Amino acid sequence: MPSCQRRSAADMPTSRPRWSDEGEDLALLAPHYRDAHDQVGAERALEVLTRAGERALDVLAGKDAAGYLEAARSHATVLAHNDGTSALLERLGDAQQTAGRLDAAVAAWEEALEAYRQSGDHTAVARLHQRLAFAVWDQGRFERAQELLAEGFAALPVTGPDLGLGLRETHARLVLRLGDLPTVRAEVGRLRAAGQRAGSLRTIAVADMIDGDAQLREGPASQAHQTYLRALTIAERLADPALIEQIHRPLTMVELMLDGPEPARRRGLYALQVARTFGVPPLEMASRLLLVLVDFHGGDWEQAQRGAIELLALGHRVSSVRAAVAGLIGQALVFTFRGDIAEAAACLTEARTALGPRPADRRMVTLIQTIEAQVARERGDPDQAVAAAADLATNWLISPAFSLAVLGGTQIAAGGLDAALGTADRLKQFGPRALYPAALAKELMGLVHGTRGDQMTALRELGRATERFTTLAMPFDVARCRLQWSLAAPPKRRDEAVIAAQSSLTVFTAVGARRYADRARRLLRGSVDVKGPAGQSVVTIDVDLIPPQPQSSLTSLRPEEPPRPDVEPAADSSAEPAGEAAPVRRPTRMGRPRYRRLIYAGAAMTLAVAGTAVGLLILNRSDPPAKPRHPAGAAFSATSPWRLVIIDRMSDDSGCSVTVTNTGTGEKRY
After folding, report:
1. What does the pLDDT read at residue 421?
2. CA dihedral sign of residues 214, 215, 216, 218
3. Residue 157 has what pLDDT?
């Protein structure tokens, strides 16, 4: 259980005094008693200040609460109230933590622990060891965290073994953070056995949750999914909102791997809703970060960036370093794939600085490393990309499929094709039910085969990856695979490549992926063929009559249906085409251009290109140079869904005809 989590009523100190005069205006009294120091009665000051501190904690005013409780502590020292000092110190630690002062919180809890030891409150001693272990871990003091847990076990009375369930649960969670899989397995077994002996369903549910994490690390995602659901069933039976929220976190990422962004988004939103019931904003951090990742994968980059900005603001508002770092990571992710590389690098540098030299949250670090590797790839530095991604193959990952895919991409960029195929095999280990890792594995395999010159296999694997991404409703991944398919397509499949590349450009433009859009445009440069039978000059130009339109909302880019089945390929071509662009839902008035708009755009483009064609014809009729620049039959690499053909009948001087043909449907305009 995270150290900042609000404790249940059973775990709360029982020595808190009962207050009278509930109608008193604490807003007026408390500042007076806080600032009066020894000029007021210590007994009355202790009462007012303690109650004011509790009230401030209730509304998460950590700094105010810490000020009131610190002043109350000084009066308690004067009065030598040993019976209530320990509870007061523990609540002071809570206030300091809520205010973002982790060092001060640890100091207060250590004093409270010593006070509880002297009073013989074994339940409180076990609780404080748990809280301190998590807190010093977050400080980067990993060895001290382990020592605190060992001290907690040693302090348990022989007659109260069940008091150690919380300590054992904390130990299992910290071992999980270390990523030592055999130790995790052993600790999960001990935790489950202890829960069964004590009849603690909650302990069993926690054991299942940690076991699901271990299963996800080494086996099919569907098996881990079932284990998480079993843990969730117990948590719901216990009506334990804290545990329910915690289990929904890994379920969100597993369901993203299994079924795509939509189920994952529903799970993440529910987790956030539960987290908000505690009234402790830092507890929202994990769910908010997961929703940023889900929105990114679902193609809603605007919402992902908004979520990251809100998360960063939350971190600054409540002085939560982890929340601020999570917000910076989310922004860096979107910046990177939109092509804002300098901004992404700045966010990552700030995140690392905030985490310090010994970051406690290794999974957060792996997400930073994932984005750093992608930044290095975008900068054209494959060696740096490989160095940044070096730990991704072995570390515990927040988004394992995505991080492994970035690792595979860096390996291909650096020429490590066999290593990339190994990463693809690792993605396959998530099982056939895990559609997202399977699609990423197909994409990596296609890129490797394409790099090795096996064009047919590359096209087949990229086509299959496209189908899976379409089923998952991941438009950016669909567009990326279609662009790769277009680049690998042979000349005889040029028309299919045109359609695939144009649909990719539409998505890249909508989400704001400028670098990817530039790659698509380079493929879609205008081509001119000047050729024809005797007595005629035929100019064929592929043009785009529908210029890409920017779009602020990205949720509409989710395909409504998978691509249509491919026609059986000819004997000399075994590769599968990327297929036509899936239907796209667009919001408000940014929908598909209407027929009239299409005709107007076509007419404008026709006039522009016709002018170019006339210029070419005039040049053809003038004295030709020794080496013609554009000999008849020469083709340039332009592609587009519309083809403009101009035929000039030079033999009878009867003028020229202009035809615009849709390359996808065959529809003609004269």
Report:
1. 97
2. positive
3. 83
What are 517's two structure tokens? 């859009």
pLDDT of residue 653: 47
What is the token pair recorded at 559?
């395909």
Residue 661 identity (one-letter amino acid)? T
Residue 148 has a pLDDT of 93
**Measured CA distances, 73 to 13, 42, 105 (Å):** 16, 10, 14
420 alpha-carbon distance from chain centroid: 22
Please give the structure tokens belonging to residue 21: 């005069």
pLDDT for 616 equals: 38
Q: Which two tokens stand for residue 524?
A: 């879609």
Q: In the structure encoding, which two tokens stand for residue 278, read together? A: 């505690």
CB 320 within 8 A of CB 100: yes
- Beta bridge pairs of residue 658: 646
Q: In this structure, what DSSP letter does residue 661 have? A: E
- Backbone phi, psi, residue 659, to 5°: -130, 130
Residues of the chain with pLDDT under 50: 1-23, 526-640, 648-654
Task: At 150, list the tokens.
Answer: 């060992």
Q: What does the block give as tokens for 366?
A: 């792996």
**In DSSP terms, which residues pair with 659 in a beta bridge?**
645
Q: Dihedral angle at the C-alpha atoms of 512, 557, 440, 290, nearest 10 degrees?
A: 80
List CB contacts of 65: < 8 A, sequence separation 6 or more. Answer: 53, 54, 56, 57, 91, 94, 95, 98, 99
The continuous run of DSSP H or E covering 531 comes out as strand 528-531
DSSP state of 358: S
pLDDT at 16: 39
Q: Are the CB atoms for 393 and 407 separated by under 8 Å? A: yes
Sheet with 668-669, side-by-side order of all strands: 528-531, 536-543, 642-649, 656-662, 668-669
Pair type for strands 528-531 and 656-662: unpaired
Number of H helices, E strands in the chain: 27, 5
545-590 pLDDT tens trace: 333 333 333 333 443 333 333 333 333 333 444 444 333 333 333 3
Query: 445: Cβ–Cβ under 8 A, 6 or more apart, which residues?
Result: 421, 424, 457, 461
Tokens of 103: 């060092």
CA angle 540, 542, 547 (to 5 degrees): 150
**537 CB burial (10 A radius; 0-12, 13-18, 19+):** buried
The tokens describing 71, both together, are 């002043």
SS3 454: coil
- CA 337 – CA 335 distance, rounded (Å): 6
pLDDT value of position 96? 87
Among candidates 554, 565, 494, which has minimal Cα distance to 524? 494
Calculate the CA 649 to chain-centre distance: 60
Q: Determine contact, residues 126/110, Cβ cutoff 8 Å.
A: no
* Structure token pair of residue 599: 């005709």
Amino acid symbol at 439 = A
119: exposed, middle or buried (Cβ count in 10 Å: 0-12, 13-18, 19+): middle
Query: In degrees to the nearest 10, what's the CA dihedral of 477, 480, 483, 485?
Result: -60
